[in-house]
Design brief:
The chain is mostly helical. The chain has 7 helices and no strands.
Length: about 200
């Protein structure tokens, strides 16, 4: 009986985070290779509305890309295989420990996508110096941003750990999305490194 409410909670959290993925404070993105920060501690599910925007790195510097491109990119990104796999697997978890593990796994997958998108962007973009500088700045600030996310959730217990895990996953997802958005301007047929099993 507990399995169904947790699955509903997980799906609700995903829907909320996807709906809010473009909302909240954004900071200029700095391109990124695979971040080295671990996702070991996670947290409380109640403030997932903040999770999508917490530490999100939306790159707003490429405002010369037409709005139609943004809509087309959003449609392409909405079909990414990582979120599809996450949606499927989140319906199968039934305990907080399983949910925490799922969030940490997908945080790791999004970190891999950051590195992959960054490498593809370097190959496509003519101004690699600017991309590399953005990447370095993002990496230099990564530990502080991760700590801010962890500190934003207080308390003890598995619900707190789960909320932190959700926020960290969404943080990495938003950075990957920012890089793929930039890449889309050069290569609308870009691919993700993740392939479903």
């Amino acid at each position: 009986m507990q399995k169904k409410p947790l699955a509903i909670l997980a799906v609700s959290l995903l829907a909320a985070s996807l709906a809010l993925s473009g909302c909240g404070d954004t900071q200029p993105a700095a391109s990124s290779t695979a971040p080295s920060e671990s996702v070991s501690s996670a947290s409380n599910v109640s403030s997932t509305s903040e999770a999508a925007s917490a530490g999100a790195e939306a790159d707003e510097s490429s405002s010369d890309v037409p709005a139609k491109t943004d809509e087309k990119f959003e449609a392409k990104f909405a079909e990414n295989p990582i979120d599809a796999s996450y949606d499927q697997q989140s319906g199968e978890v039934s305990t907080n420990a399983e949910m925490i593990s799922l969030e940490e796994t997908y945080a790791g997958l999004w970190k891999s996508e950051i590195s992959h998108a960054y490498q593809q962007l370097l190959e496509q973009h003519s101004d690699t110096q600017a991309i590399e500088e953005d990447q370095k700045a993002w990496n230099d600030n990564l530990s502080d941003q991760v700590q801010q996310i962890k500190d934003s959730v207080t308390g003890d217990g598995s619900a707190v750990t789960l909320e932190r895990a959700v926020k960290l996953k969404n943080f990495y997802r938003e950075k990957a999305k920012s890089l793929y958005s930039q890449l889309y301007a050069y290569d609308q047929e870009y691919t993700y490194i993740y392939t479903p099993y």
